[in-house]
Amino acid sequence: MALNASTLDQLAQHLENCQLQAQDTLKITEAHPEMDWDDAYAIQDRILASKLAKGARVVGYKAGLTSHAKMKQMGVTDPVFGFLVDEYVVPEGGEVKVSELIHPKVEPEICFITRTELKGPGCHIGAVLAACDVVLPGIEVIDSRYRDFKFDLKSVIADNTSASRFVVGGRIASARDVDLRTLGVVLEKNGEPVALGAGAAVLGHPAAAVAMLVNHLGRRGQSLPAGSLILSGGITEAVPVQAGDNVTLRIQDLGSVSVRFV
Ligand code: 0L1
Ligand code: MG
């Protein structure tokens, strides 16, 4: 670790305040270029600890930057991982208040729910499919706290990978009965298709993103508990949204899920 405990505390508090007050900031590596990967996840851990201390509940995890479209859009080369808490949950068909966010974008994702605990290292697609009964469509609303979405990987990890809201719904399917690589995905904004893709855009198979998450947790001495929801990462580029927009995600064989921005 390159940063001391009080700097980690101060950066975590700053990023959480930016999230809660819908205030943007410069990427934190500008002031702390020596920050390392462990520092980045330690800041994310501190944000989670602060939320848990205020009564939040962890509902799952997310993988981000798992598709080439997203990596290219953001100018980075590796996936990142974050946590999901209950304050991010939006009901199917529900509203997201744009005034609570900085510059939201939406991403179409294939989501998994684990039936049994998963542990790394050595987790692979087969173990993920064996442990997950259910897959379903999800729209992630990302909202980087960094000005104009300009960041590097360490800054974005510290910022809990831009997590802000998500909605899951549609039709639940068995993770083993659908070919997640070939599922067609259509993201619509106000009735118009704005992004198209297929499951294989996520690391060749969306379950590969879950396996990477499990191996990441394993390196940190953690496991993925049974009953976790996992957002496996945006299949297409993220699409900006504003108040008045209605967004629907349709995934072949998995139905649709919608959210409104007010
Ligand atoms: O979920 C994601 O793919 C987002 C990861 C963080 C990068 C971003 O804000 O686009
Ligand atoms: Mg995402």
From TrEMBL:
Domain spans labelled Fumarylacetoacetase-like C-terminal:
83-261
Q: Name one Pfam family in it.
A: FAA_hydrolase
A GO cellular component entry from the record:
cytoplasm
Q: GO MF terms on file?
A: 2-oxopent-4-enoate hydratase activity
| InterPro entries per the UniProt record, alphabetical | 4-oxalocrotonate_decarboxylase (IPR017630), Fumarylacetoacetase-like_C (IPR011234), Fumarylacetoacetase_C_sf (IPR036663), Hydratase-Decarb/MhpD_sf (IPR050772)
The record's keywords, sorted A to Z, are: Lyase
Q: By its UniProt entry, which NCBIfam families does this protein fall under?
A: catechol_dmpH
Under which name does UniProt file this protein?
A: 4-oxalocrotonate decarboxylase
